[in-house]
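seq:
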Amino acid sequence: MTPDVPQAVLDVLGDRFVADRVPEGVASTIDLMQPQARERALVAAEELKTAGAQCVLFACTGLTTIGLAAEVIERTGLPVVDAVMAAGAATGLILHPAPTLT
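struct:
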């Protein structure tokens, strides 16, 4: 976990980027294993919604590890893009493309 938004994220989102948050007390992915970290991550997601976000992007693999996406969706009503899951899905499509209809 870093305090700065990855440049690749900023490049892709451009002016659609609204805000970023690091959960309070979380400096590394190991910190996400602490009991209070889950709630703090959910609070950070709520803050993103308040800031005007229409979607939450998990750029930290630790959020995938703790399986937070469903709770963020339930709590904020916002869709979640999990970078790890998205990369896996994209890789699957590259390696096993859907057949084309003729």
